[in-house]
Amino acid sequence: MSFQKIGLAALVGFSTLVTAAVAQDKPTLTIYTYDSFAADWGPGPQLKAGFEQNCNCEVDFVAADSSISALRKAQLEGPTTEADIILGLDTSVAAEARNTQLFTDHNVDLSALELPVDYASDKFVPFDYGYFAFVYDSSKIDNPPSSFEDLAAMDEEFKIAIQDPRSSTPGLGLVLWMKAAKGDQAEELWRDIAPNILTVTKGWSEAYGLFLEGEVDMVLSYSSSPSYHRIAEEEDKYLAAQFEEGHYVQIELAGILESSDQKELANQFLDYLVSQDGQAIIPTTNWMFPVVPLDDGLPEGFDTPLPEENSLILNDETVGQNTKQYIDDFFAAIGQ
Amino acid sequence: MTSLPPSANKSASINASLHTVAARSPFNWRFLGGLTVTFLVFATIFLVLFVIVNAAQSLPSNQSAMSANIWHLLRMSSIQAGLSVFFALTVGAIAAVALYRLHFKGKCIALALMSAGLVLPTIIVAFGLLAVWGRAGWIRTTASTLFDQNLNFSIYGLVGILMAHTLLNGSFAARLFYDRLSSTPVTKLKLGRSLNLTPMARFLYLEWPALKPAIPGLAATIFLMCFTSFALVLLLGGGPANATFEVAIFEAVRLDFDLNRAALLAASQLVFCLIIIVPAANWNTKSMLISEASLQNIWPATDREKYVLAFLLVLLTLYYLTPLFAIIQRAISPALIRFLAEEKFLSALRASLTIASVSASLTLILAILLATARAELKQAEKLGTARFPRLFRLILGTPIFAYMAMPAMVLGLGFFLITRHLGLPTQTVGLWVLILANALLALPLANAALTPAYEKSANRYGKLSQSLNMSGWQRFRFIEWPLSRREAGYVFALGFTFSLGDVGVIALFGTDEFSTLPWLMYRALGSYRTNDAALVAGILLALVIFSFWALPYLFRIKRRA
Fold it and tell me: Which UniProt keywords are given for this protein, alphabetically ordered (chain A) (predicted)?
C-alpha cells in the first residue's frame, strides 16, 4: 500500500533530521533566551561568534517563545538545568525572577553603563533598553495624541491595538506605564481610552500586524520600531508618538544561575555582552538602545534615547508586589 | 460466537473471555486495538495532569488570585463555540448539497480547497479575513472609493469570531458532508429520481439521512476547536469581553507560575467540554446508506433548483476564497523566488514535511484502529451480542475528544515534565513529542471523517459478513477499506496538513536544531519581518491545497484483489 511507502520514506528522512550534538572538549555555555534574540537576524549568532573567538568555549543559545518561558523552563528543571545564563528578562519580571532564588550574584563591572533611569542589581546585568511607545503612520495621521489625556479625548473612530498584559511583555509594560505616569488616575483614563481600543491581542506580533495592515491607527510597540523601518526597509513614514508624561523604560536583563558550573565563563560572557564589541551588535539586531555610549555612535537613522526626565520606571519591588492588582484594575476599567 | 467483552466492571473476566474468544475470532483484536488507543490517550492526559500537580508540590508555592472570572470565560466560550457549530454545520450542509447536486468542471479543485482553511495556523486565516472584511479591507475600501460610502460594519467582536470559525469549520463540515452524500448508493438515487422527488423531498428522504450520522462527531470536534481557539478569538474578539479559558491558563503558568491552578483549570475545561460533547459524540447511528463513492452524474439538479444552488454556492465560495486569495496575493512578490532558495526555508520545509508525513501515518493508523473497533461494536449490536454497548461507545469515543479539550500550554508543560522525569534529552525528544501531539490533535478530525463510513458499513454488511464467517482482517480488506478508501485518503491529507500547523506544544523543549514552516512564520512575525511571514503563509496555504489535492490519489489506486 502506498502509504506504507510514504511512512518508510518519512522515517528515513526523519533519521537524518535528528542530529546528535557532537561531543566537544570545550566547555559549553548554555544561554536560555527568547526566540527572536536567538534567531538568524537577532543578536544571538553575532554574539556567539564574537565571544567564541576568545573564550575557547562553545556558546549554545536555547530559545523559548518568550523570556518568561525561558525562566519557567529553568524553574521546572530546577538544579539540574543545563542553563548557565537566562538572558532577556525585563524589569517587569525582575522581582519575580529574583524571588525564584535561582540566580547568583554576578561580578560584572557596571560602572560604564549609562541608563536613562537608575538601575542597580547584584543579580542582573542590564544589556539593552527601550521605551514603550505608540507607533503611528505619519502619512495617515497628522495629529497623533501627545499624552494619555489626548488619547482618551480622541474620536471613537481613532483605533489602537494593544496587547494582553497576561501574555505579552509590551502589554504589561503599558499597564505599568500608565500607572507610573498617572498613578491613581490610571483607571479613569483607561475608561476613557476603552472605546478607542479596537482589540487586545495575545502578543506583540498580532497587534503590530494589525497596524501594518492599516486596521488600526496606532499600536503599542517600542520607540525604536520606526528605526527598524527606516534602516531595514528605508521607510520613514512610521513614527513613535511622543507622550508628554514620558515613556516607560524597559530594561532587558541577563542573570547567572546559581546551579551553573560555568559561573566564571558566564561572567566573562556578560562582560563581553556589555562591552563596546557586544553592545555594537545590539541596535540593528535587537532594535534596542545599547547600555554604553558606542564609540562609533548609534547607526544612522537610529532614534536617540529620550532625555532622562521623560523616562519613567517603577522599581522592581513595587512592580513585583502590585502587578496583579494593576492588571485587575486595567481589565476592570476597560472591560466591557 | 460472541465478539465483545461480556462485562465492563470485571476486567479480569473480560480479559479471560477475550483471550478465549480471540483464539477463535480475530474480531476481538480489532476491538482491543481501539480500546488500547483510547486507553493510551486517556493515560497521556492523566499523566500530564499528574506530573504538573506533582511538580507544583516541589516548587515554591505561588498561590495568587486569578484575575479572570472563570464562569464568565466558560459562558463566553460556550456561546461562541455553540454558535460557531451551528453556523459551520448549516453552511457546510448547504455547500455540500449544492456541490453534490451540481456538476461542473473543477469540482475536484473545489474539494481540495475545502478544509484548507481549517488546518492553517488560525492567525493566517484571521489576517486573510481582515484583508477582506477589516477596517482597511477590500470591502470597505471599495465602498469608500467607488461609492463614497463609509460602511459602518465592524468585524471585531463576536461577529468576527463567528465569521472566522464558520469559515474554518464550515468548509471542513462541507467536505465531510459531501463525502457522506457521495457514498449514497446509486440504486437509492435511481429510485428517488424515478419517484420524481422534489428538491426538498430529496433532501429530507435521501440526503438528510446520509448527513445525520456525521453530525455528532463533527459537531463535537468543531465545538472543541472553537472552544479552545485562542489567538484568533483575542485578535478578532475586540478585547477581554471575548477572552478565553486559555488566557486564564496563560496567566497561571506564565505570570503566576501557579501550576496547581493551571492543572485545575485544564481539568475544569476538560470536564466542562466533555459534559457538553459526550452525549453528541456517542450518538448511535443506524444509517445504512453506503456504497463506493461515485462521481457519476446520475441525478442532476433541475433548472430552478440549479440556479438557487449555484447562487448559494457562489456566495459561499466567494466568502471562503477571498481571504485565501488575500493570503496568496500577499505572498506573490519578487522576494518569493529568493526566499524559496534560502537555506532556512528549505530546512524548515524539509522538517515540516517529515514531521507531517510521520504524524499523518500515525493519525491514519490510530483512526483506523478506532473506527474498526467501533465497527466491531456496531456489528455486535447488530447481532445482539453486545454487552454494555453504550458504555463501550463512551469509552471508545471520549478520550480522543478529551485530548483536544486539553489546553496546548498545559500539554506542553506536561510533556516537558514527563520527558525530564524519564531522563530523556528534551532537544531530541521534542520532535517525537511534536509528532505524537499532532497526531493526537488531528485524531478527532480523522475520527469524524472515518467513523461514519465504518459504522455504516457495519450496519449494511454486518450480518452478511457474519454469515460468510469473514475474519476481522477480511472485513477490513474487502468491505471497510474499499468503502472508506476515499475517507482514508482525506484523513491522511488532514493529518498531514494539520501537523504543518501548530508547534506550541514543544515551546519549552528548546529544539532549535530544527525549525518548521509555522515556526519560521511566527519568528518572522515577531521581529518585524511581516513580508517574510506573508511569504511563509502563502507557501503553507499552497502546500496545504496541494496536499488535499494530491495525497488522496495515493489511496485511489485499486488494490490487487
Answer: Periplasm, Signal, Transport
